[in-house]
Amino acid sequence: MPTDADLLRAWRAGDAQSGRALVDRYVEAMYAFFRSKVAGELDDLIQRVFLSLVESRDRIENDASVRAYLFRIARNELYSMFRRRKTDRVVGAVGDVSVEDLGERPCEVIARRQEQRLLLRALRRIPLDDQIALELFYWESLSGAEIARVLGVPEGTARTRLRRARAALRAQVERLAATAGAARSTSDDLDRWVASLRSYMAAESAVGEG
Hints:
Helices cover 66% and strands 0% of the residues. Helix 2 runs antiparallel to helix 3 (42-56), helix 2 crosses helix 10 and helix 6 (128-138) crosses helix 8 (155-176).
């Protein structure tokens, strides 16, 4: 299977099919990224991301991670949307506030396990940059360097943010859990439960905004 870099090089050389293949590779990931944060406008946001990729493909450095570049665009588009729609709620950096603080009600994902439902609620209560860092790490397997590129910070700062984000998520789980047992069963295997949410986001992406 050709790598992202292979497809990008062929696309730059005029192979439109490689460009379509590269876009198709990330449609599902883009739906998962936006579905956990916004209600509506998913298709518009995703189109904006890929249009930006088309316009900037010749400026991507040869050794750069294409997926990190795409998620960087997605983050920028998301934050631009929030600034337009939530001007009265955004004070300072958008990444420092949570989805819930912004008044968003993302489409609900039907998860069978209480741990997964609890984590979805908890994710939406931590700062957006923390939520994004965790999702990129657990759902998309981005490296620390790639997450740093998405967030626009040094790699050391990104790794510190990941540790802080885990702690913030655990705190929200304990606050939101209906029982001590629910909090414990979620926190005891936090990494696995967070990672397991990706399959539900992938399934939901197949139907678009529903």
